[in-house]
Write a structure and sequence with these properties.
Layout: E1 7-13, E2 18-24, E3 27-30, H1 32-36, H2 46-58, E4 67-68, H3 81-87, E5 98-99, H4 103-111, E6 116-119, H5 125-132, H6 136-152, E7 156-161, E8 166-167, E9 171-172, H7 175-187, E10 192-197, H8 204-214, E11 223-227, H9 234-242, E12 248-251, H10 271-280, H11 289-303, H12 310-315, H13 322-329
Parallel strand pairs: 3-12, 4-5, 5-6, 6-7, 7-10, 10-11, 11-12
Antiparallel strand pairs: 1-2, 8-9
Amino acid sequence: MQCTYRHVLKKIKTSKRTITTIVPEIRIYEVGPRDGLQNETKFVPTEVKVELIHKLASSGLKNIESASFVSPKWIKQMSDGVHVMTNIKKIPDVNYPVLVPNLKGYEIAKKCNVEEIAIFPAGSEAFSQKNLNCSVKEGLDRFRAVAEQAVKDGVRVRGYVSCVVGCPYEGPISPTAIAKVTEEVLSMGCYEVSLGDTIGVGTAGSVRRLMKEVLQVAKPENLALHFHDTYGQGLSNLLAGLEFGIKTVDSSVSGLGGCPYARGASGNLATEDLVYFLYGLGVNTNVDLVKLVEAGRYISNFLAKPTESKVNRALGDRFSDHLDIVKIAACKT
């Protein structure tokens, strides 16, 4: 399949001539501080979350999902969302979105002066009942009220659709069903919908089938890819999705993640692995891998568990300049 990336021209000057190369643009959406930590049993204090966010921003990441305003009764790890958002030292060109479940959560988020929120309807009936305690339709109606209010207030809205390939309770999910939910979410005013393989059962083949169906109702620029790496298929699934012109990818530092309502789901695609992968494709992410690795180790050390990022493990402490890592990824001398 021919690659349909949105391209930009980049001129590289040498001593003899100017070479024009084509470089694809990919936007990384970091979800570690929220999606990555929500399933951790060890509570991560506010100051550790804030420091993690600062480290991620200093690495060059421009979109860092920072908190959630769901009920502490259901997700205790996210109970300090207000404190996190009011203690972040924000960098002007960095986006710090938050997750909201309903109008009550939105009103709390709004008081924190957030510029972007995310809503999260499910792609399967059973998962919607477990995660939202309502049907898919009821969930969509609930989130529509949130999205419409946010748009009215001038707040950007992003949508997540979970279980886009498989559900822990229903099994395989029809791509047609996901396309319908995606179309509904976009109609609410969301600028983008992130397609989440929540339990990580997808393969390149199932992702291609999904994309062919969803692209009947959405443009590539309005979609993002969100893969969990349960079966080690994260990067191959990503490559399959990028073939369709998708330019936004969700990932989590150190491969953190999991879902309280999806037993067996492992962490997200690791941001370190994603950045290394993209540099290998010739994509300049403007992310400093040395600083990103440091952020991954910071949170892994606090959680007292090894990083799930293979790149983080492989690099060790051998590099102080990320450009040296870029050369390795691109196989350049």
